Amino acid sequence: MDRSALDALASSMVSRGTPEREQALRELRSRGNSPVETIYVMSRVFGTFLSEAKAAIYESSAWSDQHVGWQRLHSDLSHNPGNCPFEAV
What is the extent of the structural domain holding 18? Predict the structure, then answer.
């Protein structure tokens, strides 16, 4: 994740006029941004906490095809937190 590039993207989006939330989510998705990158940019564009940006991505139609996978991951982690599929960094 290149935060400088993401900050530049957020500034560019704001300079064009702050978009509607769903429009911004669709644009970020179509650009190929990851969910984490999208959450970061959304927090910068709309001046929200990361948790609010995360909620926005979960509620969006732009990312609706990912909802089932995210819910499954959260469920698996809540039932067995010691069996995380990701390696510690």
Answer: 3-83
Tell whether 15 is covered by a domain.
yes
Number of folded domains that form the chain: 1
Nearest Cα neighbor of 24 from 12, 49, 69 is: 12
Contact 33, 45 (CB under 8 A): no
Cα–Cα distance between 55 and 7 in angstroms, integer? 20
Q: How far apart are CA 37 and CA 30, in angstroms?
A: 13
- Residue 47 tokens read as 């001046």
| pTM of structure | 0.77
Q: What is the pLDDT of residues 21-62, one digit of tens each?
A: 999 999 999 999 999 999 999 999 999 999 999 999 988 988
Cα dist from 87 to 23, 47, 84, whole Å: 34, 31, 8
Residue 88 forms part of a structural domain: no
- Would you give the distance in Å from CA 25 to the centre of its chain? 8
